[in-house]
Amino acid sequence: MKRAFPILGVLTAVLLSYALYEALVAAPTEQTMGDVQRIFYYHVPSAWTAFTLFLINFVASILYLVRRNPAADIVALVSAEVGVVFCTVVLVTGPIWARPVWGIWWAPGDIRLTSTLVLWLIYVSYLVLRRFSSSGQTPTLAAALAVLGALCVPFVYFSIWFFRTQHPQPVMGGGGSIDPRMLHVLLINWLAFSCFAFMVCWSRYRLESLQREVEQAHALESLLDPRGSLR
Amino acid sequence: MPWNRCWTRAGVCDERKCPMSGNGYLFAAYAATWIIHIAYLGTIVRRYSRLQREIEDLKKPGVRS
Q1: Does residue A231 sit within a domain?
Q2: What residues of chain A lie within 8 A of the CB of B18, using their CB?
Q3: B-chain residues near A100 (CB < 8 A)
Q4: For chain B, which terminal residue's Cβ has fewer other Cβ atoms within 10 angstroms, N or C?
C-alpha cells in the first residue's frame, strides 16, 4: 500500500492538470455568462465531492454507533474534515461566480445558499466537538451529530427542485440541461477532485491512526515508573 | 486561450465581447480553490512533522514526558 501512494499521487496530479486544461481551454465558452461560467467546473465537482464525503461520514458514524469500531470512527472524522474543506471551496467559489452574474455576492434568504451554509456550520461544529472535547463519549456524541448533519445533505441537494431559488437548476435531473462537451469536462473534473479527495483522506487516515498510537504509547508510559514497572 | 478574447489592445476588458467581464473572477475562484486545498495540506504536513518529533522522543531511552 505504501508503494501505491506515490504512484496514485502522480496519477492524481496528472488528472488534475488535465482537468484544469479541459476546464480553461477545451470546454466551450458559455454564450450568456462568458468565461466566468468556467467556475462551474470547480464549484459543482467540489459540491458533489463534499456530499460524497458527508455520505461516507454518515455510513462510518452509523457503523461506529453499532459496532464501536475505532477504524470507522477514524473514517468518519477524516471524511468530515476533508468534506468541510470541499464545502468551503463551494461557499467561496459560489459568491465569486454570483458577483458578475447576479450582481451580488450572496442572495440573502436563498434556500440553496442558506442550507449549504448551515450544512457547513454543522460539520464545522462536528470538527470543533472532536477537537476540543476530551471526554470518552466524544466519538459517540460526534457520531450522533454526524447522523443528524447527514439529514441536511439531501435537503441541500433537492432544495433547488422544490423551492423557488436564485441558484441555477441541477445539471443532471431536475429542470436543467447541459451541452454534452461541458458535461464531459464537468465529469473529468469530478473524477479528478474525487481522486484528490481520496488521496487526502488516505494521508489523513494514516496520520490519525499514527496519532492514536502515539497517544496510547503516552498513556502506557504514564502508567509506568522510571524503572519500567507498573505504578 | 479563452482569457485573451475579451481584452482590447489597450489592455481594457471589451464589455461587448465579454459581457460578464469574468476573467478576474475566474482566476480568483480557481486560485481560491487551490489556496484552500494547499492550506489544508499544509496543516496535515505540519501535524505529521509534530507527530514524528513525538515518536522520536518516545523512542529515546529514559525520556519521560
Answers
A1: no
A2: 34-35
A3: 20-22, 25
A4: N
Q: In this complex, do B25 and A100 lie within 8 Å of one another by their Cβ atoms?
A: yes
pLDDT digits (tens, 9 = 90+) for A42-98: 999 999 999 999 999 999 999 999 999 999 999 999 999 999 999 999 999 999 999
Is B36 part of the contact surface with chain A (CB cutoff 8 Å)?
yes
A129 near A138, Cβ under 8 Å? Answer: yes
Is there a domain that residue A215 lies in?
A: yes
Q: Is the residue at A9 inside a domain?
A: yes
Would you give the end-to-end CA distance of chain B in angstroms?
Answer: 58
Between A205 and B14, residue with greater pLDDT? A205
Contacts of B30 in chain A (CB under 8 A): 20, 24, 39, 42
- Please give the residue range of the domain that contains residue A14: 4-27+38-159+176-222
Task: Give the phi and the psi of residue A29 in degrees, each rounded to 5.
Answer: -80, 130
What does the angle CA A74 – CA A202 – CA A63 come to, to the nearest 5 degrees?
Answer: 30
- Which of A5, A24, A25, A35 is the best substitution to test chain B (most B C-beta atoms within 10 A)? A35
Rounded to a whole number of angstroms, the distance from the CA of A35 to the nearest CA of chain B is 6
Count the domains in chain A.
1
Which region among A11-15, A170-174, A189-193, A209-213 has the lowest average model confidence (pLDDT)? A170-174
Grid cell locating A40: 462551474
CB-nearest to A35 from B22, B36, B47 is B22
Within a domain: A166: no
Which amino acid, one-letter code, is at A33?
Answer: M
DSSP A5-32: HHHHHHHHHHHHHHHHHIIIIISPPBTT
Helix (H, G, I), strand (E, B) or coil at A1: coil
Q: Does the pTM of the predicted model rise above 0.90?
A: no
Exposed, middle or buried by CB within 10 Å (0-12, 13-18, 19+), for A82?
Answer: buried
Closest CA of chain B from A41, distance in Å: 10
Helix (H) or strand (E) holding A105: none
